Amino acid sequence: MNYQTDVCIIGAGPGGALLAYLLAKQNISTILIERSDKLGKEFRGEHLNEDGEKILKKHHIFEEIESLGLLRMSRVEYWKDGHIFKTIESELGHAGIHVPQQHLLQSITNKAGHCSHYKLLLGTKVTELIKNAHGHYIGIKAIQKDGKDITIQSKLIIGADGRHSAVRKLAHIKNEIRHHGYDLLWAKIPAPEKWKPTIRFTVVNNQQMALFTQTGGFIQIGWNIKKGSYTSLKKQSVQPFLDQLILAFPQLKESIEQTLSSWKDFILLSVYSSHCDTWVKNGLAIIGDAAHTMTPTGAYGMNASIMDADVLSQILPKLLSQGSLEAGKLKVFEDARRKIVEDLQAQQVVTEDSFMEKFTNSLKIEKENLPLFRIQ
Fold it and tell me: Does the pLDDT value for residue 239 go beyond 50?
């Protein structure tokens, strides 16, 4: 089966889905393909910050997400041995918003579905990028879940397919990986009654642990472990760690005992950030984690992808109308976003490297009964 379109976007995560909608509503024919046969697969980076919130409100998507369900974090708390010792209240009205990816993608695709220039193909895996005689990318080949081969001829290919991007690999874009010295274990447990929607930080085994309240009455646990240590860790009993978790947050004892019983109840995330030598080639661009994987620190990843989509959606209409989709023209997008992203990645490193020192200093301040600072 053959298709022809202005833009073909690979990857229907937050950035790819948003970009497809923003282009289609500008009457730019857009095909969005997704390897999974459904949207909204489980996703752990689901926190929206001020930048992401602003963009979704700008495009009148936030209201629909809110109707489906989201949760504003009231504040950030720091805990030690079952006791809170520091609270940070945000003057923004919240310290972050939990937005289930399913709600986010459903809201975007609902709007996109009303655009005649939009087409979504699920269960479709890209297998090849097509070039013309001049080395300009002009389309893709893909295979659908039922085994059917398809070809999509496209003026522009967008890789929005995440940290393991097939588009990036097929386009031979160099991707430099930076390890940050830790990996992350995720777990999800029911929240006890009267558990306030907050972000809580503590230290367990000299490693940072964070708790994020989620919609639906759940808590997401993010536990930092030493890079590469999970193989040996899972050979040991999980109980000593669970005991430490209960010591850190006694209110969670019942939820922990009912929900967590083995390492199989945790999901491992290999933590790293990445830097690509370019985000654009002739007839092709990459966005989000495909272009700049970020660590979980600060929950910037999803928001950065949303910002990429917003910026690119403003640049592409003019370039498409001019037929100017060479790398040199598409570089306008990369130039608009690269430094901002790299500054955020640098900020993540600083935050990670300084967490233990700031945590310890805050404990000392509390013991000395000195006033604590409020976030601005």
Answer: yes
